[in-house]
Specification:
The complex is a heterodimer of chains A (652) and B (75). Chain A has 652 residues and is of the alpha+beta class. Helix content of chain A is 44%, strand content 22%. Chain B is built from three helices and six strands, in the order βββαββαβα. The chains are: A alpha+beta (652), B alpha/beta (75). Chain A binds chain B through residues 172, 177, 181-185, 187-189, 193, 196-198, 200, 204-205, 207-208, 210, 212-213, 215-217, and chain B through 18, 21-22, 24-25, 28-29, 42-46, 48-50, 52-54, 64-66, 69-70, 73.
Chain lengths: 652, 75
């Protein structure tokens, strides 16, 4: 991706979000005229950037939006709610298109149709005469397409060689001859011209009526030179030129897209002081590294090993602190605000409430809360699912709500805040709440748990059953909450991020789903255990303690084994067996890692415990991503790869 | 003289600039429509525009840099 395009992706999102904010504010207060100006500027700028790229449909939609905003701005129409809705929908669509561009490099095939639909709607609102065709004609980059179409043959060769071309639309001012301009002279200096088209702007008048000093020409060019050089050339008349990019037909483009899942590639904006800080740290690290050579020299010179060792220790200590600082800085760089996640969420909710014809007052708070990029990227799906559930199952029909003395409009709020190293996110609705009796019944029907056990649960514990695997089944999933993911997936996703979910609900008053997540993908501490000749790591947070248990204290119970720890009986399993190793030789004492699982604590026997290490967890990727029981890998100092076990899953 | 008429053909020669537009327009309006560009080194946009508007019959090769591009436009 070239730099200009990357810049566009970042700025485009920002502009969409700016305009969306403004319009949402206008929805609340139609008199906030400053917001109209701000929204207009954002849309105008975005339309301008869109024109540089081959994104004509987006330009068409934005052009119509701009017109409508312009009208309200000049006071010809009042910014009514009837306007903000379609305008927001237009921005939502642009945001979705940005997603598509990011994923596949181009607009989806239905984009032109969709754009015309949006533009028609918006044009109708302006009440202006003129049909959509004129809008399309004026809009953004449609001239680029026309130009390419007209010069198809001339461009064919160059295009097939895979070169990106730049289209230039040069409309000299009518009085340009008086300022000494000679437009075609300027054109003759354009490097690497591929096609030129010169047409009259208005039909030629008869020669008798012709003003020989009035320029009536529109000059359109295609050049294979870089857009930067071309802009430079036209830098004195920026008001008379427009640029457009004619992307080379790309075999790996949207259509030929290969079925390789692409890692979400996202650009983040970074404060330059953070980069400077990293550079400083890097400098210090280089100094520390050079120190090692000096130490090696000392050993070679026959210095006393003990005093060398002391120096190595101190070198290690200073490197340690540098690495820690670098880690901290890089993590800070990766922190992004939840803005984008919340915006997408708002967008989806708008679409959803329309489809369900349900009035929802959806609000987000704390979108400035910063989290690690990986957390932000993963968070959207679970949040969306919770919000969907709230709207689909939580919020009652308006009649029911009125009967219960609630405002007809359902309220769903997503709130985020930072709590120490963690972030807390709440999804609160004022809907019907969750009926524990119904949950119990469903859980029993779907055999989520033992009937007796389920009946014995108190209300608060019973509603947590909705997180149990198998609770949401296909038949229970409506079209809206669909997509085949249930609350159990929400729970696992959040847990995979190192977080947890809880649920509170008061029947008739509403539901509150709380997420707690680590804000950053920090170093985590693992316990290294040995089984036969292999070493594995276990995240320390899942280990409640390590104990030595005499073999004699381990008793067979039913098909399995168990032992008693401080008056409680815990199941006993051997990791060697679970992993398919041959059973370990019987030692007089079993070394047991006590692990917290959903089914309570379990003792897992290993051959040995060794160190605790601070490691960077790397999630498994590709084919290995779904290997059960393994949550990631990490690299040890000696270069060996350590598998990080998810013991709860291994025990199954 | 950059604009002159010989046997009902308008000849543009040398560097033809914006100020030649008015005399050229007069000639074109008077019914002349044959224009010879051989010997023309530069044709100002104002003149190109007139030739386009008048649908003039062009003969002779222009020797300016944009000649190749102008040719199809002036036909």
């Amino acid at each position: 991706m070239d730099e200009l395009f990357e810049q566009f992706m970042i700025e485009g999102r920002e502009l969409i979000s700016q305009a969306t904010d403004d319009l949402s504010a206008l929805e609340e207060d139609p008199m906030a005229t400053g917001r109209i100006d701000s929204a207009f500027r954002a849309v105008h700028t975005l339309k301008g950037s869109v024109a540089i790229f081959d994104l004509a449909p987006m330009g068409v939609a934005l052009h119509a939006a701009e017109d409508l905003l312009e009208q309200s701005r000049s006071g010809r129409t009042v910014m009514e709610r009837a306007f903000t809705g379609p305008l927001l929908a237009c921005l939502d669509q642009c945001d979705r298109w940005m997603d598509a561009i990011e994923e596949s490099g181009g607009l989806p095939v239905d984009a032109p149709k969709e754009a015309v639909r949006i533009a028609t709607g918006l044009v109708a609102l302006t009440g202006a005469p003129g049909d959509i065709a004129s809008v399309v004609g004026n809009a953004g980059a449609s001239w680029v397409i026309d130009l390419v179409e007209r010069h198809k043959e001339q461009l064919a060769d160059v295009r097939s060689s895979g070169v990106d071309l730049t289209a230039i639309r040069y409309a000299p001012r009518a009085d340009c001859f008086f300022s000494g301009d000679d437009p075609l002279e300027l054109v003759s200096t354009v490097p690497e011209l591929v096609a030129v088209s010169v047409t009259p702007v208005e039909p030629w008048p008869s020669l008798d009526d012709m003003d020989p000093y009035r320029c009536n020409l529109l000059i359109e060019l295609v050049s294979s030179a870089s857009i930067v050089d071309l802009r430079q050339l036209f830098r004195f008349i920026p008001d008379q030129v427009e640029f457009g990019l004619i992307a080379a037909p790309d075999a790996s483009g949207p259509i030929g897209n290969v079925a390789v899942s692409r890692e979400a590639h996202r650009t983040i904006r970074v404060d330059s002081t953070q980069i400077d800080k990293l550079l400083d740290l890097l400098g210090e690290l280089v100094v520390a590294k050079n120190g090692l050579a000096h130490l090696a020299g000392l050993v070679e010179a026959g210095m006393d090993p003990n005093s060398v060792a002391a120096r190595i220790r101190s070198a290690q200590a200073s490197t340690d602190s540098l690495v820690a600082q670098m880690h901290e800085t890089v993590m800070a760089v990766r922190m992004i605000s939840l803005d984008r996640v919340f915006q997408r969420l708002t967008r989806m909710v708008r679409g959803l409430s329309q489809r369900l014809e349900r009035d929802i007052a959806f609000s987000v708070e704390g979108s400035e809360t910063r989290v690690d990029k990986s957390v932000a990227d993963t968070l959207f799906d679970p949040l969306l699912h919770i919000v969907r559930n709230a709207i689909d199952h939580g919020i009652e029909d308006p009649d029911v709500r009125r009967a219960r003395g609630k405002p007809a409009e359902g309220r769903v709020t997503v709130r985020a805040r930072a709590v120490g190293d963690e972030i807390a996110i709440e999804v609160v609705d004022d809907g019907a709440g969750i009926d524990p009796a119904k949950v119990r019944q469903t859980a029993i029907e779907r055999q989520v748990g033992q009937a007796e056990g389920v009946r014995a649960l108190d209300d608060e514990a019973a509603i947590q059953l909705i997180f149990a695997p198998g609770f949401s089944t296909a038949s229970a999933i409506s079209e809206v909450s669909g997509r085949g993911i249930g609350m159990d997936v929400v729970k696992t996703t959040v847990e995979r991020l190192g977080g947890r979910v809880s649920l509170e609900s008061i029947l008739g008053q509403g539901t509150n789903v709380r997420l707690r997540l680590p804000a950053s993908a920090a170093l985590s501490t693992v316990l290294v255990v040995r089984v036969a000749s292999d070493r594995y790591a276990v995240p320390l947070e899942s280990v409640s303690e390590t104990v030595r248990v005499p073999r004699s204290a381990i008793r067979p119970v039913g098909l399995g084994q168990a032992f008693v720890l401080r008056g409680k009986t815990l199941p006993f399993v051997e990791l060697a067996r679970l992993l398919g190793h041959s059973p370990s030789p019987e030692m007089s004492d079993a070394r047991v890692v006590v692990v917290e699982t959903d089914q309570g604590r379990v003792g897992v026997a290993v051959d040995d415990f060794s160190d605790r290490l601070d490691v960077m967890l790397r999630p498994m990727a590709g084919l290995l991503a779904n290997v059960p029981g393994v949550s990631g890998t990490t690299l040890l100092g000696d270069g060996t790869v350590l598998l990080i076990l998810d013991l709860a899953e291994v025990i199954g | 003289m950059t604009v002159r008429v010989e046997e009902r053909v308008i000849h543009l020669t040398g560097r033809c600039l914006a100020e030649d537009a008015e005399p050229l327009l007069e000639l074109l309006s008077s019914g002349l429509d044959e224009v010879d560009l051989a010997g023309c080194e530069h044709l100002h946009t104002a003149l190109v525009q007139l030739l386009m508007a008048a649908h003039a019959n062009i003969r002779g090769e222009l020797s300016s840099a944009v000649a190749g591009w102008l040719k199809p436009i002036l036909i």
